[in-house]
Write a structure and sequence with these properties.
Layout: H1 3-32, H2 35-60, H3 62-107, E1 112-120, E2 128-138, H4 140-145, H5 154-164, E3 174-177, H6 184-192, E4 197-204, E5 210-218, H7 228-245, H8 247-263
Antiparallel strand pairs: 1-2, 1-5, 3-4, 4-5
Length: 264
Amino acid sequence: MSESLVSLRDEAQRETFGGILSRFQKFAAWAAQNPRRAVTGSVIGIAVLAFLVPLTLAVMMPERSFDLLDGILDSRLSEELLAAEAEAEADLASRQVGLELQSLLFRHGAGRAVIRIITFDPERPGQIVSIDDVFETQDTHRESLGLRERDLPADQINQTLRFMLSDTYNPRCIALNTQDYTDQGLRDFLTAGGFAASVACPIRARDRTATGLIAVSVMTPIEENPDLERDTRDTANFISGWIEESGAVKRLRASRLRRHGGAT
């Protein structure tokens, strides 16, 4: 760019800025003549400044103003990309949990495998808001029986969790034949599904807090499934990180807490 054009641009910038500043000074002098004007003038002045600052920046430093605009757009785009990436990772974690649960079902010829997630009240440690079946897979026969729509008794689920977590540092699994369970509601559920036995193991977060449980039900007695308890425990430990990062669990807990907060 020639020197004459640069000088002409600089002169235009000075004249524009000088004219704006002169008008603003006259407005300030008018407002100072009366206390009421001062209050009104302050409000108007703030609004004018909010408009003039970016305009003045654009006039005096057009290159910097474009850099600022690019920075804002880049920041917004980065936030959108990060959000999309986080959502994709959460969905991937959900799919991975589902695949591992299905694999556990197939390895042992089980009829049903389910993961129950605990939602705790953040304001009252240890207080359970809800326990929900989030991940579940069944064979075609169990699906035809409608087991998915048949809920287990809530008291039995709580009793199972209390037994599992009675020792925080050594959580226990439960592996029993159907007739050996003491709760009649659970026996009825397992019998309706044609299950001879069931195994349940706790799922824990990194801080050892219980976050849920995984249960697998089979059509043959425990004695004929010697590896089922160990494999269920190993699967629970293996997928615990994915469970906490999964979109399914995050959405469930957010929904339950919103509902719980609204009720209280």
